[in-house]
Write a structure and sequence with these properties.
Elements lengths: L28 E8 L20 E8 L3 H16 L6 H19 L18 E9 L2 E8 L12 H9 L2 E6 L5 E7 L8
Antiparallel strand pairs: 1-2, 2-3, 3-4, 4-6, 5-6
Helix pairs in contact: 1-2, 2-3
Length: about 190
């Protein structure tokens, strides 16, 4: 039987097998890909808006909404900055991605850093996705989660406050498959306005 590792809106964003049974024992990384910016519009999962043709490449990873996703997603952003010739953005990319994913995990997943996989109920486990893409001298970091609530309600939480301080700009949008995407654009210090 083929296993489908993409979350489904019908299952509330949980990873399921082809026959809709939850996958048990799937590690934290369920999809890793470098996406072309042309042709398919850079769409792999359908959770993010399509990339414009001018975007050369993007990296997208779908992770179980566990504390480990924070570190993995942050490293994806750091590595993308380095590979795409933006080493001066590595540190801030890592911080922004960590804050966005930490917020997504705290909102939809299991944020306890000491959770054992055997203690987690796979029927309630959600996923989060991160996509990193380059625009000129900037990186855009998108994080999707299953919670449809926009983060613009005051007071802003500590993660969004940190993202606002680190990023040139940020915002969120709802997605048709359910949930929302929070994105942040980071650029060199001399171009940042906030």
């Amino acid at each position: 039987m083929a296993t489908h590792l993409e979350p489904s809106p019908a299952t509330g964003g949980r990873i399921t097998a082809a026959d809709s049974r939850p996958i048990v024992g799937v590690g934290p990384v369920t999809h890793l890909g470098t996406l072309p910016g042309r042709g398919s519009g850079g769409v792999v999962s359908g959770r993010f808006t399509p990339l414009p043709p001018a975007v050369g490449s993007a990296s997208e990873v779908t992770l179980l909404a566990l504390h480990t996703a924070i570190t993995i997603g942050a490293q994806v952003a750091r590595i993308a900055a380095r590979l795409w010739g933006l080493p001066y953005l590595e540190h801030v990319a890592e911080q922004v991605a960590a804050h966005l994913i930490a917020r997504a995990v705290e909102t939809t997943g299991h944020p306890n850093p000491n959770s054992r996989y055997s203690d987690i109920d796979p029927t309630t486990l959600a996923v989060v996705s991160i996509r990193v893409h380059r625009r000129a001298d900037a990186l855009i970091i998108d994080v999707w989660d299953t919670d449809p609530t926009a983060p613009d309600a005051l007071p802003l939480d500590q993660h969004i406050t940190a993202v606002g301080a680190l990023a040139r700009r940020w915002n969120s949008y709802p997605v048709p498959c359910g949930g929302k995407v929070i994105w942040a654009e980071i650029a060199p210090e001399d171009q940042r306005t906030g």
